[in-house]
Amino acid sequence: MIRQAVKERKTLETAVSVSIGLDGSGKADIATGVGFFDHMLTLLAKHGFLDLQVKAQGDLQVDCHHTVEDCGIVLGEALKAAVGDKSGIHRYGSCFIPMDEALAQVVLDFSGRPYLVFEAEIPKITLGNYDTEMTEEFFRAVAVASGMTLHIRVLYGKNVHHIIEAVFKAFARALAEAVAADPRVQGVMSSKGAL
Fold first, then answer.
1. From the CB of residue 184, how many other CB atoms can be counted at a distance below 10 Å?
2. Are 73 and 18 in contact (CB under 8 A)?
3. 184: phi then psi, degrees, rounded to nearest 5
């Protein structure tokens, strides 16, 4: 079973392409024009055992909003396509990740019912050309486009870089758990027989 997908999105604001392999080795090829965001997507690939390529050109002369959000949309679409009908996967994933003084928790469900709960007080600052408030927008876009129920909680932390990095790493590990193939799972992980 090949669990990979390629998706693209072109608008007057951005051009984004994503290639993803769920059974990868953590190989990343990321170029969005937003340095901190590239760093986070590279971490996502490494800690999620994904082979991930993300290429984006956006209206960064405005700000990073459209680029980051559209990357989230296309990544979510690629995840949805790579997971397919969800048969044979765990469906759920959860992880706590510490990053020095920060602690983040991510719990997710490939339910087909997109929803985001984002409980994180992240100071609104700019890291390079990345607006930290885009963290929530990115994960909302991923959740909606992939059909994922996603809960993100930052329990504590002071350093903004550490807080956001802990969130991305926790998401990566929860994602790896949720999409893991398990021969014990016959069909989809649902008593209804469908997701």
1. 7
2. no
3. -75, -20
Instruction: Confirm if 6 and 18 have CB atoms less than 8 A apart.
Output: yes
Whether residue 173 contacts residue 95, with contact meaning beta carbons closer than 8 Å, is answered with: yes
Enumerate the domain spans of the chain. 4-179
Residues 152-192: pLDDT tens digits?
999 999 999 999 999 999 999 999 999 998 888 777 766 66
Phi, psi for residue 138 in degrees, rounded to 5: -60, -50
The CATH fold assigned to 4-179 is: Ribosomal Protein S5; domain 2 (3.30.230)
Q: Give the tokens for residue 87.
A: 């048969």
Count how many residues are written for the chain.
195
| Alpha-carbon torsion angle 30, 55, 11, 139, nearest 10 | -30
Q: Is residue 93 within 8 Å of residue 152, measured between CB atoms?
A: no
Please report which helix (H) or strand (E) contains residue 116, including its range: strand 115-119
Structure pTM?
Answer: 0.95
8 A C-beta contact, residue 16 and residue 54: yes
When computed from its CA atoms, the radius of gyration of the chain, rounded to whole angstroms, is 16
The token duo for 13 is 């604001």
